[in-house]
Design brief:
The protein is of the alpha+beta class. It has four helices and 13 strands.
Length: about 250
């Protein structure tokens, strides 16, 4: 996920240096052909992740724990409210990492609004989304984190579209790697980290999952048919994190 490019450095070595001695008395000594030196590996942390990967994981942990949400009043042009709406139907999109095989996912839309009444704002930033299984809450437990997604600013820009509100909305498709038909009800929470440092979170939305597309696909496969895809593939830059080192409850709900 580290998008920085490392360029090999060119090193020119004098012939006298190769002989073990470099002196200022031979300025015209012929130079050896420049040799490319392999760049050092990206810096890593004690967990084996690159610095960029570790940074994303730290932001995901802050999101899960509900830390770093902006509390100061927004100025005109700044984000003051994040609104999200999610489709409870599990849909399928071609997964380019598995030969284009359709993959289940969740669809939703987000809007950023400023402090004044008006159209949604067009702002740069990253999107974080988490899904919790609410089934344990039926027995007095806490919702269990299933999966989180990180959508980098470049990918977020690509899914930004004008809509009926008169401003930009974010059309999201999240590949649900931990999906199964036993999931009944889930909580979905979205967060937007603006490049200006403001961080907003949308109100949690509880969905009763509609598995009809999955059941139809299963029936079609049993009948020898090849079902088509429902939606376009997710944009590059959308990353799913199905396994988290720390499981946090969603505000005790």
């Amino acid at each position: 996920m580290d998008r920085r490019r490392l360029f090999p450095a060119a090193v020119v070595v004098g012939a006298a240096a190769l002989a073990g001695c470099v002196t200022p008395t031979k300025p015209d000594a012929p130079a050896e052909t420049a040799r490319a030196v392999a760049p050092p590996p990206p810096p890593t942390t004690s967990t084996g992740l690159s610095m960029a990967q570790n940074d994303v994981m730290n932001r995901l942990r802050s999101f899960i724990a509900g830390e770093g949400i902006s509390t100061t009043q927004a100025k005109p042009g700044q984000a003051a409210r994040l609104t999200a709406a999610w489709n409870n139907k599990v849909v399928y999109a071609p997964d380019p990492t598995h030969g284009g095989e359709p993959f289940p996912g969740l669809m939703g839309k987000m809007w950023l609004f400023g402090p004044e009444v008006g159209a949604p704002l067009t702002l740069e930033g990253e999107v974080l989304v988490g899904v919790w299984d609410t089934a344990p809450a039926l027995n007095g437990g806490d919702p269990v984190l299933i999966e989180t997604w990180h959508i980098d600013p470049e990918a977020a820009r690509k899914v930004r579209r004008k809509d009926f509100f008169g401003g930009d909305g974010y059309n999201l498709f999240l590949p649900f790697t931990k999906y199964n038909v036993d999931l009944k009800r889930i909580n979905v929470v979205a967060r937007f980290n603006c490049v200006d440092g403001r961080s907003l979170v949308a109100a949690p939305e509880t969905l009763t999952l509609d598995h009809s597309a999955t059941l139809q696909r299963a029936a079609e496969k049993l009948g020898g048919l090849n079902p088509g895809a429902d939606v376009p593939p997710p944009a590059a830059g959308v990353q799913a994190f199905p396994q988290q080192p720390i499981q946090f409850p969603l505000n005790g709900k």
